[in-house]
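Much of our argument rests on the idea that a fold can be written as discrete symbols. The amino acid sequence and the backbone structure tokens for this protein are reproduced below:

___
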Amino acid sequence: MRLRFPFRWRTERRAFLVGICVLASGAAIGAALPVAAQAQSSTRLTGKFVVVEIAGLRQPEQLNRMHGLDLRLRDRGGAPVEHADVSISGSRKYAPNELPTVPVITHLGGGAYRLEGLRFHMAGEWNLSLNIRMKETSESLSLDVVVK
């Protein structure tokens, strides 16, 4: 005699198994990428009032993948910038396409910030604008990213 499970349980089980397969195939694709494509670099942006080091940025970035970046903010004297209001916006360089997500930036302390929820939905050259508001000043820094 064969046991029959309720329809809802079968649907949830199917969704779970599909999710496992998607995660496994994503890991296999990431493992198949050349080492140079997986390499993360550190980028430094220098403005009039602040220096920003960005870690976790790949060149080129991957299409339709959620990205997270680590930011370290220092003033021109080298002291960490604490409790700055940091936001990011972006668009494609040669087309009027905006970022499809609204990335969130969290202050971690010691001048460290974590950016999460960045996704590029179209290949090409993107321009990210990092807007930083400190106590007395504000600064906008620009970063070009290639997405493939």
